[in-house]
Design brief:
The structure is a single chain. By secondary structure, the chain is α+β, with helices and mostly antiparallel strands. Among the domains are: 66 residues, no CATH class; 60 residues, no CATH class. The protein is 44% helix and 18% strand. The protein is built from nine helices and eight strands. The strands form three sheets. The protein has a four-stranded antiparallel sheet. It has a two-stranded parallel sheet with strand order 1-5. A two-stranded antiparallel ribbon has the order 7-8. Helix 8 packs antiparallel against helix 9. The longest helix has 30 residues. The protein is elongated. The mean pLDDT is 97.
Amino acid sequence: MSADRIVAKPSVYLIGRQTVNEEALRHFLGDEGCLFETDTKVPAEILAETAGRACYMSYGKGRKTNRDYLERIIESHHGSVLEHAVWNFLITGISRSLTHELIRHRAGWGFSQLSQRYVDESDARYVVPPLIRDNPTLKPLWLKSIESAHASYVELATALEKVVEQQHPELVPTDRRKKVRETARSVLPNACETKIFVTANARALRHFVELRGSAHADAEIRELAVTMAKLLKKESPNLFSDVEIVNEGGVDVVRVVHSKV
């Protein structure tokens, strides 16, 4: 199997972020007789602060900077305020094994994943697990297993084409291909690379990077969690200010000062 079909690291693309309707916010503040300015330009941080201050109508009162305000929110575990900040990601270079764990995160998440029923996996890529990645003994054994499974998929899909055509002549070509692929995929390994579009709010993302970025997490999803934690700290430094990336025994892990907000 060619080297370009073997994937070692995930890729995370930040596809979408919110914007603030400043005119509507000014209108609301004017109707309520409030004066409010914030020092951040990050829409997610503005929205989270606006939401939090709505709970007490504390616009223009108390903590003056967005960072101070959000740090207090996080310290107080007032996590519902963080649910108003939302991002969209496209993630590639990850295995089906990883997404089996990723999609267990439901509250505050949305997922749209590549379908093996519709997509031909004859040219599939495969994600090598971190423990095997640089091991000269284990990697050849892993590659042998992957090549065997992939060959079985291609062989099975070819044989199924004739069977489906004979048994289901009433189906249009698109539906025949779907029947072939949904059956042939049964022999594909968990290492098969997938792509997934993810939408999540700040509270859900904090929980994800804390749980899956732990030293005790699965190695592949931990790498994804660390990658996303680094991205989020740049994207919204005030909402993720207490999220830290540290090295433990040569491996990057995530630590969150204020756990389970």
